[in-house]
Amino acid sequence: MNRRHFLQRNAAVINTPVAAVAGRPGPLAGPAAALAQQDPPETVSRYANKELPTGLARTTSTLTPYAGTWGYEQAAHLLRRCLFGPTRPEILAAAGSSLTAVLNGLLTAPATAPDPPVNVSATDTSVPIGQTWTAQVFDQNFEGVRRTSLRDWWLGQVLGQGTTLVEKMTLFWHNHFVVEISNINDARMGYEYCRLLRQHALGNVKQLAKDVTVTPAMLRYLNGNQSVVGAPNENYGRELLELFTVGKGPLIGTGNYTNYTEADVQAAAKVLTGWRDLATVPVGSYYTASRHDTTTKVFSSAFGNASIVASGNTEYQALINLIFQQVETARFIVRKLYRWFVYYLIDTQVETDIIRPLATILINKSFDVVPVLRALFSSEHFFDALNVGCLIKSPLDFTVGLCRQMQVAFPPATNVAVQYGMWNYLNGLTFVQQQTLGDPPNVAGWAAYYQTPQYHELWINAVTLPRRNQVTDLFIGTGYTRSGVNIKIDVLALTQLFPAATASDCNLLIDEYVKLMLPIALTANQIAFLKTALLPGLPDFEWTVEWQQYLAAPTNTAKKAAVTTKLQAMLRALMGLAEYHLS
Fold first, then answer.
1. How, if at all, do strands 297-298 and 480-482 pair?
2. What's one Pfam family here (predicted)?
3. C-alpha angle with apex 350: 260 to 100, nearest 5 degrees?
4. Which of 212, 228, 312, 450 is most buried by its number of CB atoms within 10 A?
């Protein structure tokens, strides 16, 4: 399998005219605002899959516990999939530990939840700058800046994730139980939705399904707050079955699928009548008995012709219990986890040897997600060579990962307005790459995780590839400045974190950067290309001489510039490789 092939072909689209990018809900800061001005059609690369691969099984590996070598490569692969851009110290610490110990850390949530987002705008006069707005009354005049604060705060949590899987799983559940925060017109409800996802990130998916059903953001987003006896709204009931739990299965008749029918959607909608969102302080939801359909709801043979009798404000829980009794619900959720963490292609072998056994674990563990993740991440299948470096990074993985891997220094919390401003800038960068945190394009989530046959290849197209190059060029070069604070890659500081012998040897130096930034090995020609970027036409010893001269006189402008420009040129060449877009 040539994991480079797609991106190598697709590099030609750099010369294709770049379309304008879609408008973003909420304000952007700095140059990102200039990149987001119009609403274009969605762009799909001409090189993306036209059909899924067929024929022989892609792999033969199973969930048998991994018993191979544990070192830097394996630790880096695990952390690249579980974190947004692991740092070199994080990879080294994991490599020096054991797979079991590293998984124990990844699969443990922090003891305390993060502090809520705060006001950083003079527009919101309800609270001083630096204090949270989440407990204030709703005010349409402040909604825009509060929504921006929420989205930027969320980016800050991703950036400061530590070595736990919580943030990657919070985003997974956001892409699964989708709410478009810009569409609910109450940032406080958006925050409560985010808090709920984070609370259950490594918890019980069945309980999460129950809680998200009546969380105010979801009630508002999918019109559950309008669903009453005599006029049940089918939106949430339909998405609950189709996208959040059991999935469609093959079509067996007009509007009827293997796993549910139109009659089941209608019955589910009746179950869910009577709930309203509550826009008080704090936000919440409530049940009104007079708005609820009290008939007995009868489901199709797909659910064993089960009935749900009227049971007031707990009836929705009976619906979730019924849905989670279906084995296809566990399989549907596991398939989405697989595409998120491993690869998009689920062939017969993967379905038989990976998906179904993991679904059995999910069921046997009462829908706690950690045992499933532990079994997957500790398997020979996860560490199969074909599953390393085979995913294209999402815009969040690409942008946040760049900042984390390169250990870019951000403003501290003591300078909260500038700190949020920098997070806002990163949100602007991911937006022009076609991923907006808090606002997937629709209730199905980001197309890269479900749209067959392209899947993650949708992340790279004539719009986004040049944008990615702009991001790396910016951070390698002058960086971004706001309120007198600059964020950029400090190539000298980063290189000095390497062992002294590595930093002073051009070959070892390049190898160290490649090992940190790329998931698969480069060819000899590619390594030579990077060396040419570092030392154009010069012998190897020239780097050693110049580096030692810089260390001896770090304040000498000429000596500092000599090594800085060489390192920047090498990093620019490295980040321009197709492999840099892979995880």
1. unpaired
2. DUF1800
3. 110
4. 212
Averaged pLDDT score across all residues of the chain: 92
Q: DSSP 3-state assignment of 65?
A: strand
Question: In this predicted model, what pLDDT tens digit does every residue of 124-180 receive, in sequence order?
Answer: 999 999 999 999 999 999 999 999 999 999 999 999 999 999 999 999 999 999 999
The type of residue at 120 is: V
Handedness of CA 542, 548, 551, 554 (dihedral sign): negative
Q: Which token pair is 396?
A: 């969040």
pLDDT surpassing 50 at residue 227: yes
How far is the C-alpha of 330 from the C-alpha of 312, rounded, in Å? 27
Task: List C-alpha distances in Å: 318 to 206, 289, 323.
Answer: 11, 17, 9
Amino acid symbol at 109: A
For the beta carbon of residue 34, count every other beta carbon within 10 angstroms.
Answer: 10
Helix (H) or strand (E) holding 107: none
Q: What is the 3-state secondary structure (H, E, C) of 301-334?
A: HHHCCCEECCCHHHHHHHHHHHHHCCHHHHHHHH
**Pairing, β 480-482 against β 485-487:** antiparallel
In terms of Cβ atoms closer than 10 Å to its own Cβ (0-12, 13-18, 19+), residue 356 is middle
- The strand pairing partners of 481, in sequence order, are 486
275-278 and 284-287 strand pairing: antiparallel
